[in-house]
Amino acid sequence: MSRTYPRLAYERWTDPVAGDVLETADIDVVRLDLSAPAERNWSVLESAHGYQVATRTDTASLPGASQYLAGAELIARCENLLAVCSAGAGYDVIDVQACTRAGVAVCNNSGPGAEAVAEHALGFMLDLAKKITVSDRALRAGPVENRLTLRGTQLLGKTLGVIGLGAIGSRLVELCAPFGMNVLAYDPYLDEARAAELGVVGVALAELMRCSDFVQVTCPLTAETEGLLGRAEFAAMKSTAYFITTARGPVHDEHALLDALRSGAIAGAGLDVFHTEPPRPDDPLLQMDNVVATPHTAGITVEAARDIAVATATQWKAIFAGPAAAPAAQSRCVAALLRAVQRRVRFPSTRRI
């Protein structure tokens, strides 16, 4: 009698080390080829018990590939699914409500990439304050006749406003400590003990926008945060302040941001995320001299890619092994999730080849 194994479908790993971690596990790992015929991919997905989800970036350049995002239709069609996971902190590529209704566990990895994203956010602050990119553009365009036109500012003693104090936001606060900045934070889930530990002052969103010299967005995209920052919020900012985001584009209103930049209502912006990714070359935000932009690369470092891959593969091993494999440090709710998955596990159709 052939032994059967849980099947895990994935589009890509952030680093090949994930495959090495899973090689010794009793898991049938199958890669999706988004350019392959749909029938082949759906055959894999419909037989899968776990899905390491494709991202919007993965599917953006391939016609029809958006059907492989973990939306309600995919969840309903793939009745064998026990869990879906996203690499990194963001899980907006997963329809959490559809998964909840279907009894499918949702997982992310918020810790491994935090250092990379926090450093990128700090890099934006330094670039904008010191006018590094602006100066580089000016120098390449021809002789700089008056250096004073490129005069920047310092971080020392300025006020930093952080929206979302998760792993990334918390690490950013730590990285900014040597600059002696005053740190304000807006996070509905921030308690007094954590605020005191980080040395931040919890405030309402309106106060943060009004008082900060640098507004950093590091929160996830959820129903609570979508459209969080609009015209009123940008209008409240200082004319000398900078807006920076390494979160997700839909957290802020791009049209409102563009108007604030064009009118001089704010000094500039550092953007790693957009509503449409990749953004069009003629995106008006990319035409602004006071914008520094990167193509959603804040979390892409050699170290982060490897760490996320190891964490992702280890997470899948834990999910399919059940609560006995969960580290002692895991919370009771995670252990309960694993027990629920374990109770549902039935692998009648998958064989290790």
From TrEMBL:
Stored InterPro entries: D-2-hydroxyacid_DH, D-isomer_2_OHA_DH_cat_dom, D-isomer_DH_CS1, D-isomer_DH_NAD-bd, NAD(P)-bd_dom_sf
Domain called D-isomer specific 2-hydroxyacid dehydrogenase catalytic: residue spans: 71-324
Family matches, as PANTHER family: D-ISOMER SPECIFIC 2-HYDROXYACID DEHYDROGENASE FAMILY PROTEIN (AFU_ORTHOLOGUE AFUA_6G10090)
GO biological process, one term: amino acid biosynthetic process
Entry's family note: Belongs to the D-isomer specific 2-hydroxyacid dehydrogenase family.
GO MF annotation, one: NAD binding
Keyword terms: Amino-acid biosynthesis, NAD, Oxidoreductase
Keyword Amino-acid biosynthesis in annotation: yes
Entry protein name: D-3-phosphoglycerate dehydrogenase
Domain D-isomer specific 2-hydroxyacid dehydrogenase NAD-binding: from-to ranges: 122-298
Pfam families hit by this protein: 2-Hacid_dh, 2-Hacid_dh_C
Keyword Transport: no
